[in-house]
Structure formats: structure tokens, C-alpha cells
Design goal:
206 residues; alpha+beta; two-stranded antiparallel ribbon; 6 helices; 74% helix; elongated
Length: 206
């Protein structure tokens, strides 16, 4: 039976390993696709930055200036626009930097998944080794052994018949026995409690 339990556990271990490997492969494929996508975007950004590392920001401001005095002696004001041009780094550089940080996160996740995948056999076997043998597992193993071995089936049938006969034999012997001391003591205690309750009830009625 223990050998059958180990064989059935080995089948479950292999099945669990296959399922987890499938999950790891799916996650690794997803992360690789994300890394490839971001890398392509960054390649285009770096080409753009190489061609245009800076950009010019143009700001227009309006101010009033005195252009002269009218006939009444009041100042004549006019609006003057000022155009300012500032050279700043291309904002695409920040986008490329953010993508690089995301690539670092994805690569770290990828390394972790690959490491877990490499140790999956050891991890699963350690998990199963910590599990105690349950009743259902023993029962399934017993049924498997009995169904495959006529000798085992015969042995368990004989054992079952022997235990059944033994139980019937004990019951038959006890059928003709008088009450034992323990049963007499229990009945005596019950009778005393019954009398106490009746006396208490009579006292309360008076």
C-alpha cells in the first residue's frame, strides 16, 4: 500500500510540475513580448533623440509701452509683443528613461520566473513531502491494490469475515449475561436523582 501511495504521489507530482511549467512558460512569453515592444519603442526614441537632442520652446508675451502723448497731454500706449525662444532637452528623453526603468522591472521578473522554473522539480517534491498521508489517500491506495491483486482481495475478505464473526461472537455472549456492576451503579445513581427531584417537587408544592 505504501508503495502504491508513493507511485500515485509521483504521478501527481509530475502532473503538478507540468501544470506549473505551462504557467511559467505563459508568463515568460508574456513578459518577453512586453520587453520586445518597449525595446522597439525605445529604439525609435533614441533615433529621434540622436537626430534632435534638443527642442526650442517659443513663448510670446505682450506688454504696453508709451509711444507718445496726445493733444490732451495723456500718454499714448501701445501693445508690444515679445517673442522668447528657449532651447531645452527633447522631452522624449524622459519617456525613454521611463521605458528603461520599466525594462529593468520586467527583466527582474523574467530572471525570477526562470529561476523558479529551474527549481520547480525540487520545490514541488518538497511541498508533497511535507503533506501527511491522509485517510482518503490510503483508502484510494488500498482499493487500487485490492482491485489489482486477487491475493490481497482474498486476504481482506477473510480479515473482514473474521472481524465480523468476532463481533457477532462477543454480542452473542453478552446477550445472556446479567447486568454488570457498572450498569447497576448507573441505574442506582439515576434512581437517586429521580427521588431527589420528586422530593424537591413535593416540597415546592407545599
Amino acid at each position: 500500500i505504501q508503495q502504491t501511495i508513493q507511485e500515485r504521489r509521483e504521478e501527481k507530482i509530475i502532473s503538478t510540475i507540468d501544470k506549473r511549467l505551462s504557467v511559467y512558460d505563459t508568463d515568460i512569453k508574456r513578459i518577453n513580448a512586453a520587453i520586445d515592444s518597449i525595446s522597439k519603442v525605445n529604439d525609435a526614441l533614441y533615433r529621434e533623440l540622436e537626430a534632435k537632442p534638443t527642442t526650442t520652446i517659443t513663448t510670446v508675451s505682450t506688454s504696453q509701452q508709451v509711444a507718445g502723448i496726445d493733444a490732451n497731454g495723456k500718454p499714448i500706449k501701445t501693445n508690444v509683443q515679445s517673442v522668447n525662444k528657449t532651447v531645452v532637452p527633447n522631452p522624449r528623453a524622459e519617456q525613454a528613461k521611463g521605458n528603461e526603468e520599466q525594462l529593468k522591472i520586467y527583466n527582474a521578473q523574467l530572471d525570477e520566473l526562470r529561476n523558479d522554473k529551474k527549481n520547480i522539480d525540487k520545490t514541488v517534491r518538497e511541498d508533497f513531502s511535507k503533506r501527511p498521508t491522509g485517510f482518503i489517500e490510503e483508502l484510494e491506495a488500498t482499493l487500487a491494490v485490492v482491485s489489482q491483486s486477487p491475493v490481497s482481495l482474498t486476504f481482506y475478505i477473510i480479515l473482514f469475515m473474521f472481524l465480523t464473526f468476532l463481533e457477532l461472537f462477543v454480542l452473542t455472549i453478552k446477550t445472556g449475561d446479567s447486568k454488570c456492576d457498572y450498569e447497576l451503579i448507573v441505574e442506582h445513581q439515576l434512581e437517586l436523582k429521580k427521588n431527589v427531584m420528586l422530593n424537591t417537587e413535593n416540597i415546592l408544592k407545599k
